Amino acid sequence: MPAHKLVLNDVFEQPYKLLAVHSSVEEYKLAYLLNKHLGLKLARTPKDIDLHKGNESNYFAHFIYEDLRQYCTYHLVSNVARREGRTGSNKDSLFFGELAVQKSILLPEFKQVDFLLKIEDELDAVSLKMLNALILEIPQVSTAYAVDFHHIKTKENLIFD
Question: Which one of 7, 33, 151, 156 has the largest count of C-beta atoms within 10 Å of its C-beta?
């Protein structure tokens, strides 16, 4: 009797839309600008996104808005986490123990992206092109573009629950 194998890779993936946003403003300022220009109500979550790499924890700013009329949820996430840390592993080094800013990336395949706007849209009511055009009208945003779901290698980093 032949063995049957079920592949469940695509079953548990929830489809979502993802926009990459390039901007030099702080995350709270971008959330304010998106609220103002898009009519959203993004609010910072009590807990940031915690991504463990080895024995280090990196915290990424997370803003959320649930639109109950259109049955969709907006997540604004910083793609870059900066934290201060001590440099050097050799005690004889000239710069041992100096404070330095260490940077970690939520989606390493998109290193140049500053922020990610994830839209979980159950009814497909949000037009990604119109949303992108409205974001590009914000003067503090350098550029914004849609990211194809299939080009994301670290999809597990975008699970925020």
Answer: 33
